[in-house]
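Sequence and structure are kept together here, with a separate record for every protein. An example record follows, reproduced without changes.
>
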Amino acid sequence: MAYTVFAGVGQWRAADQHSRQYGFFGFDPELDDWMALSDGLPDQVEVRHIVVRPDRPQTIFAGTQLGPYRSDDGGETWHSLSLPEGTSAEDSVVWSICLDPNDPQTVYVGTQGTAVFRSRSGGGNWERLPISLPPGAIVMTFPMRVVRISVSPGDSDEIIVGLEVGGLVRSLDGGETWQSCNAPLLELAEQDHLRSKILSDDETEGMMDSHSMAISQAHPDAVWLANRMGLFLSDDRAATWREVGIGRFSPLTYARDVKVSSHDPERMYTALSVAAVSDEGSLYRSDDFGATWSRFDHGVEVDSTAMIVAEGVSSPDRVYFGARRGRVLGTEDGGASWRSWQLPDGTEGIYALACV
């Protein structure tokens, strides 16, 4: 088999109690169907992040509830990449994976709490980076987690980590020391329309609710942030932030994902919805590095929160996105036509998506 798209599912609080809330699936274009992946993976595997190595698409990383896994044969078989001895069960629950764009042998893994691990050998050996909870982090009814890690395409020493619900921290010395990026985000939260509290008593909760980040090789100082309150842009490597105003282009502003195309550094995608749990979602694209946006999906129904977008490693015409209640939507021709599938067995809880 030759899988072209991978989707990962993990438990989420608002799913139907009778639905399947775990699994890892690969799309087989010859069968035109989704296949459950299991060879070498944990039983009832939960997957919340998937990364395809761009220079070697047969190598795929997946983050599970029992640590990171890697496939070297395009998803057919998998093996565990053991984190350091003594790593707790909580610190083994993977929420994010990042490959250093300057060295794909360097892999970062983010887990529950504020744990970040780095391997310089493609996952063979790991070291834990010393990150503390930053000022402004909110105590929620679920554990803190590292939802995204970004490494500057021009300097591997520059690392930014997104925490849910804890804002951002960055390192400028390769992970030796870390500093909070939350002060300007908390300042923005003083504006009435950027205040939001759902599971705490603090109206800065929405601005601390980081979901995704993106960095472009053509704009090395720029960092994009998607969070509960919309899209935000830093022009100085996360030192200061400004609101983009995605509401000028979309009636939906809850931003769950933002990505820069690996084929065109000016092209971007963002997954927008009403809220974390909703019956509506959409995919927007920008061809001018976020100056303007337009809806990209059409002719398909997005019946729940749009969670994640993935562009093909091998082709910019292959773009897919996943909706929370188990629907995957995609185009193989650059947006001219679209299809959608419901994952097998009524699966709900899509977190991860990747395309070769």
